[in-house]
Structure formats: structure tokens, C-alpha cells
Amino acid sequence: MSLLKPRYLLIWLFVFLLAMLFTNLGANGLLEDNEARFYEISHSMARSGDWLTPRLSGVVHFHKPPLTFWAVGSSLRVFGYSEWAGRLPVALASLLLVCLTGFLQKRPLEGSLWTALILVTSVEYWFLSRLVLTDMFLALTVGLALFAFWRLKSSDSARWAVLFWVSLGLSFLTKGPVGLAVVSLTGGFYSLLGGKYPWKRLFQWGPVLTGVGVATPWYLLACLKFPGLFSYLFFFQTVDRVSTEVHGRGGPIWFYLPVILLGFFPWSGALWVALREAWKRRDDFDRLLLAWVIGPLCLFSLSGSKLPTYLLPLFPALALLVSRVIEKERSRRQAAISCALGFAAFSVALVVFIEHGLPPELLAARFELLAVGVASSVGSSLSLCLTCCHRDREALATVGLSFAVVLLFLSGGLAKCDASYSSRELSGALVSAGLDQDVIVAEYKDHLHGLPVYLGRRVVQISFPRETRFEQDDEYKPFLFKDLESFRNSLAPDQKFLLIMSKSDYDEKLFPGLVAERIGRWFVLRSQPGDGDLADS
Rounded distance, CA 255 to CA 350, Å? Predict the structure, then answer.
């Protein structure tokens, strides 16, 4: 019995994907601030049963539509309130997207194997597959829509048109019109490159209305309940986000070039080969993949709001482009040399970083980082040797599998850095010290979104701006203060409180009479001495 037969290869691939996407999924605490923020909103929905209104620390928060919160909140209700349960829907979405991308391959088995290996070991895709964020759900809905678009070109079945519009409807519930923009620009550039657009099959009333029916009920109900919400979502959260830098996330037009080089590592070295070969061939599938990269990249590069995670919907196309260069010997050779050299450079830089530049925040994970250094050094050396022996397929496989080991070690090391990147350790110290319910917990300037989750209580925010335009009463006012003076004035003479802030915001002169203790990178100031120290790190 050969373990390399097609059915066994698929089994091994599935086991590999499970290991990459689910190992240590709940080991580390919620990362501040974005992951903890989305988890807190989902947690609030699941606890309250109000699935219509997103709330962050008790305040209405319409920065994103609710699909991510619904998925994560449902998982929390079913599997319990834990980091693992919160991240499970994201990991499942990433697994589905990997499988979907493999199905797009023209070579059913070999192409799917390579595509899955490339996609799941690219560092940004792997990292975002284990965080409670909207990006993986957006990438999945975009991938589903383009998968249906491609199938519709060769099939008269209406189910592909239905899938296309339902996927766009779900993308509207994930990140508003961003998914529609990505898919539309992909289709537009596909036509410009000479592709034949299936207009008649795509634009049928039944499938279109089905997609509208998926997207509109929540928007309709929310806008009826909160006057002015439509204008807020359409102009401030969409038009202003693209056309201005009002959200404070601007950047140069070339912002995403280093993002691709770093985020798609260790395969970014092969992109120049993949793009060159795709442009030379320009068959119909190449046109789709090139358009999938060029169209959204133009949109995000010209947008006034830029974040590295925005590029995730492009990663399936990048993985498909790179997997196609392995078909031909010459392009495979160039890709193997580029990836092996890039992996070797990474290994050298990593060893230097561990020995001479490890910051205090990562010292707790020093053993795991040493294991990462060993794995990358061995893997890069072996891939270079295989390249020198003209065994280019084996060299590329070694790059991918070695980097998979690197990522698994990193997933274990991240759990040891909770004191620096999560509020889980801080919350544990507060609870262990005997935090009474009558003690007010307040945060100054910064807000740890995971703190209310871990403490199981609402936290007061001081000098932290919040949007309250959709609040209908004064319920939020006892929990939001514009400055320290207004907070102090609100306290009864004998009221006990804890004041939490980052090290950079702590100034002893501003807080006379308060007992200051340090936990990780945060200071905890108490209104009076307790029974013992919280921590000293």
C-alpha cells in the first residue's frame, strides 16, 4: 500500500491543514486591541441575546456589520466562552478558503496540494486565520463570489449565479461594500485583459434578489432603530474611509508593496516569476488571477485608509499564481532559487535578532524563538542544497514544510507573551488579588478591550474618545469620562477604585496618593493599599 496514492495524499493534506490552522488556537490570550475588540462585541451579543446591535463596552458600536460577531458569538454560545471558541469560526473559514482555492486549480491533485501549502504557510494568511477579525470572512466571501464567477463561465446552471450574489450579500454583512468593490474591480480588469464576462448568466433577477435578500434585512432593521445610521455607514465608514484620511490610517501609494513581500513570505520571492509567466501566457485563468491582484491592489493603494490586513482577499490569487510556475522546469527553477535564498536570508536575520536584538516583550518566548531559529536554519540549508542539486520541487516543498514548523513554534511562543500583548495575565492578577465587585475598575487613555471579558464586568474609560451618537439615554455616562478630574469628581469619598494605564501614560505627579504597581507593560494604581502586591514584572 503506497502512502503517496492520490487518496492518501488528500488525507495527509487535510491532516496538515488541521495542524496548521487549529494547533494552539486558544493558547494565547486575546490580542489587543483589534482582536479583543471584535471578541468583546461578539461576547456581548452572545451574553445579551441582542443580535441586532453591536456594543463595545456597553456602547453602541457600528464600525463593522455583524456577520463576524454572529459567527463568533454563536460559537461562544455553543462551545463556551473561551479564546478557542472565539477563534474557531475564523479557522474554519480559513480552512474552507484553502479548499475553495484548491478547487480553482486546473490540475486537480498536484495543483491543489501546492496551492494549499503555499496559501496556508504564507505568514499573513496563517496569522489572520487564528485571530477574531473580519478579514478572513471577507476573504472567504470574495473567494466564493469569484469561484462562482469562474464556474459560471462554463456552466448554464443558475446555482453559480445564486452563489455569486449570496456571497456578495454575505460580504456586505461582513465589511459593507468592500467585497463588492473587490469583486467588481476584479471583473472589470478581467474584461480589460480580454476575458469574456458572463453578463447574461450573472445578471438574472432571481439570483440578484436573493443576494439583496441576504444583505438588506439587518441594514433595514438597524437603520429603522437608529436614525442617521445609513448616513454614518455609507459616508463616514465607507466614502470617507476611501477618499480621506479621517480614520488616521493613511500611507504612501506604495504602502502595500512591502506588505506583500512580508505578508506572503516565504513565497514572495517567487512572485516575480509567477507574474511574469502569467503575463506571458495570459490564458483565461491567468487573466482572472491577474485581475484579482491588480484591481483590488489599485483600490487599496489609492484609498485614504490603509492597513496590512486589507490585502488578505488577494492571497488566494497570489497562491494560485505561484503554484502555476511549478508546472514548467525553467520557471520552477527560478522560483526555487528565489524562495530558498529568501528563506536563508530570513534565517540569518532571525538568528541575529535572537542573539542581539530580542526586546523585553519577547523574552518569555526565547525558547520557542530559538526553536524557530533552528527550524528555519535547517530548512533553509536543506532547500539550498536541494536547489544546487536541481531538485527544485523538493526544494520548494522543503521551504513550505520547514516554514510550517516555524509557524507552529511561533503559535506556541505567542502564548508566553500574554503580559505584553493581551490583558489576560493582567486580569488574572487582579482577580487573584481579590477584586471586590464594589471596586470601580477604570482605564486611562488606552482601552484594553479584553479586560471586560476577562473580568466579567463593565470597565470605566477615561480620556478615551468613544462615539455615542447612537446612544438613546444616559446609561453610558457613568462609564465614560473626558478627563481624570471629571472621574474624580464623580466618586464618593470612600469609593475604592483601580486605575489602569500603559507605562507611557504613567506620571507619578499626576496621581498623588495612589499606590502604583506594575503588571507587564501596564501600571495599576489603587485608591488605597490592598492586602498584597498584585504583581511585579
Answer: 24
Q: How far is CA 338 from CA 127, 178, 197, 341, 412, in A?
A: 23, 33, 35, 5, 29
Rounded Cα distance, 366 and 413, in Å: 8
Q: How would you classify residue 287: left for phi > 0, otherwise alpha for psi between -120 and 50, otherwise beta?
A: alpha
462 has which bridge partners?
Answer: 444, 481
CA-nearest of 274, 261, 266 to 398 is 266
Residue type, 8: Y
Q: What pLDDT sits at residue 3?
A: 46
Sequence ranges of the domains in the chain: 6-250, 423-526
What contacts 107, CB < 8 A, 6 or more positions away? 327
The pLDDT assigned to 354 comes to 84
pLDDT over 50 (residue 534): no
For residues 200-224, average pLDDT: 93
pLDDT of residue 28: 92
pTM exceeds 0.70: yes
Q: How far apart are CA 433 and CA 61, in angstroms?
A: 32
CA distances from residue 29 to 425, 431, 463 in whole angstroms, order as listed: 8, 16, 25
Burial class (CB in 10 A: 0-12, 13-18, 19+), 162: middle
